[in-house]
Amino acid sequence: MTTEDLQKERIAKRMARAGLCSRREAERWIEAGRVAVNGTILDSAAFTVTSQDKITVDGNDIPDLERPRLWRYHKPPGLVTSHKDEKGRDTVFDKLPEDLPRVISVGRLDLNSEGLLLLTNDGELARKLELPATGWKRRYRVRVHGHPKDADMQKLAKGITFEGVRYGAIEGTVDSTKGANSWLTISLREGKNREVRKVMEYLGYTVSRLIRISYGPMALGDLPAGAVEEVKSKILRDQMGIEKFEETAEPVGKGHGYGQRQLRSKQQSMSKKTAAPTGQAPKSRKRPTLKARPANKRAR
Question: Residues with catalytic annotation?
Fold first, then answer.
């Protein structure tokens, strides 16, 4: 037994990391008397657990934690970056391969944006990658209506305030102009809500296409639209300096615990009760690219 095995964490955080629910949902489940640790039903979320504790929800063991993993996903336009959409629109998570483990997105891309979206099975990793302090630059190819000038890019480089929101320094270059449109490359580190579209609006230009081409050292490259590819653990270790990223011989879309469809079914079954509620992979092995389901057809 290692020190890491006995490291304590809040019960709600542990449940969220297992991919069952958000921390807030976990707290509600605990208040509803649905969660037990080592056979004792909890009545408060102010409780810490270790890897040695047995946690159950409605009498069922929660999934084991996986090693932190990261995937590149080429998001096509027309998908919402959310697990659920109140308007019934297709989501990114509806279209992922069914044998992919439960994942969350690192940040978001809005409905009409496309390109690189990072996915992970570890909420702690997602939060770390989203923080500006991590220093990872996000780069976009942007098509706008109009002909931006160098002076416009200089304004962005100094940072701007628009509609009461302060946007930090943004790097921008005008790559080409054809007809009524121009292509730009925009680089930023903050990733505020609809930031690229907002700063272009501030300059007087309308974005007609927005493609994220990189997020830190992770590049979109030639990954086909709708495809998913796992990032090698060595890259995560080198970039994040975290030793817990270890290669396994598992196929890219598989892992311990529930797949996308299995976990969605498990979550739905649990949620209904709330209202009442080893070996190292060979270095030469190339990780396969998974093709997601078509974006124009809702997954069942």
Answer: 110
